[in-house]
Design goal:
Elements (H helix, E strand, L loop, with lengths): L2 E7 L5 H14 L4 E6 L6 H7 L5 E4 L8 H15 L3 E5 L7 H12 L4 E9 L3 H5 L7 H12 L3 E5 L6 H14 L4 E5 L4 H13 L13 H9 L2 E10 L5 H19 L2 E10 L4 E6 L12 H4 L3 E11 L2 H18 L3 E10 L14
Parallel strand pairs: 1-4, 1-5, 2-3, 2-4, 5-6, 6-7
Antiparallel strand pairs: 8-11, 8-12, 9-10, 9-11
Helix pairs in contact: 1-8, 6-9, 10-12
């Protein structure tokens, strides 16, 4: 029987990187793995990022797992038929919660003997800010964040390399007071020893009695999702001087700068900068800003790059679209390049309507 590791947690908490690094490590050790990604949109940077590492991957787009339960089942079956994985990691969209009642318990009910564990990731930099009542996001968005942590089998406090030892100790004390009965791991997902601890914890996890479904207000949950805008787009940049990656970097920097100027709270802002034979993922969150100074030599010599954009921000769709359009127009003025756009979608998620909700199992 297949083992399913569901991965939840807020936007930008490092779920995809942890999954990719862990699957790579497990495949090297002869353990077949697969991944199912999930998003409210149709064009997933995460799928491309996982696939580039030669990891079998399927996706459930256009809505969360709970609202697309049958599609999730079909993708699990497809992975089993084509790749026979021993373990499947299923990464839920970062604004989703109530997975225990709407996905895990139905699956346990319909598939006797299956092993399922829910890990919920939290960014070590963002975690204390939101738990202590920050106004970084609205109350409705914060509600989703806290409910995600509440239903976890295992909480992963991720990106601990970005906080000091003093801050980490404060986080430990906070977690002990808020979640005294939870399994809590502290992890840098680029460190294999940490990933080994995580996989060991998941493999040995045994629930004590019936796992509790959330007591959740769907009106507040739905309002929280509706305060976040999703934008997906593909952007092609052509130059004649081998500096397409530089132009792409300028565009990414321009988009981020305008978002900061408008003070829009970032759930997750992801770019996949891709040439013919190489790609780099650039991720911004509400707290963390990456460095874009060290592009690979392969990208530096490129006359063409494609940029996949996944933006999830607390704002209105038309405002986010304007930022993208203004940034592209400014790049056209200052750089000798051709820019093409396609598949842009900007929207707010609809009210969550799970296919199943099992409270007691």
């Amino acid at each position: 029987m297949i083992t399913l590791f569901f991965i939840g947690g807020f936007l930008g908490s490092g779920k995809t990187t942890a999954i990719r690094e862990t699957c790579t490590m497990m495949l090297e050790n002869g353990i077949k793995t697969g991944v199912i990604t999930n998003d409210q949109g149709e064009m997933l940077v995460d799928t491309q990022f996982i696939r580039e590492a030669s990891i079998p991957v399927r996706e459930v787009p256009k809505g969360c797992f709970c609202c697309n339960y049958d599609e999730l089942e079909q993708q699990i079956q497809a992975l089993q038929e084509t790749d026979q994985p021993e373990v499947i990691f299923a990464e839920s969209v970062g604004s989703c919660t109530d997975l225990m009642a709407t996905v895990i318990k139905p699956m346990l009910k319909f598939h006797q003997g299956i092993k399922i564990v829910l890990s919920v990731f939290a960014d070590a930099c963002l975690l204390p800010v939101l738990l202590k009542g920050s106004r970084l996001f609205t109350d409705n968005v914060n509600y989703i964040y806290k409910k995600q942590l509440e239903e976890a089998d295992v909480i992963i406090v991720n990106k601990i390399d970005l906080v000091s030892s003093v801050q980490l100790e404060e986080i430990r004390l906070l977690m002990e007071s808020r979640y005294p009965h939870k399994v809590v791991l502290y992890q840098n997902s680029l460190e294999r020893k940490d990933l080994n601890y995580w996989i060991t914890a998941l493999s040995t996890f045994q629930p004590t009695g019936s796992r509790r479904s959330l007591d959740i207000d769907y009106d507040v949950y739905g309002a929280g999702e509706a305060e976040l805008t999703w934008l997906d787009e593909e952007i092609d940049i052509y130059t004649s001087e081998g500096n397409a990656a530089d132009a792409g970097t300028q565009l990414i920097n321009g988009i981020y700068s305008k978002i900061k100027e408008q003070r829009f709270s970032i759930g997750h802002l992801k770019f996949l900068l891709q040439s013919e034979n190489h790609q780099e993922k650039i991720s911004y969150t509400a707290i963390n800003q990456p460095s874009l100074n060290n592009k690979s030599e392969i990208l530096k010599a490129a006359n063409y790059v494609k940029i996949f954009v996944n933006a999830r921000l607390q704002t209105e769709p038309y405002l986010l679209e304007k930022i993208i359009s203004d940034s592209i127009n400014e790049l056209k003025v200052h750089e000798d390049c051709e820019i093409g756009e396609k598949n842009r979608m900007a929207f707010k998620p609809g009210y969550p309507k799970p296919a199943h909700r099992v409270l007691n199992y």
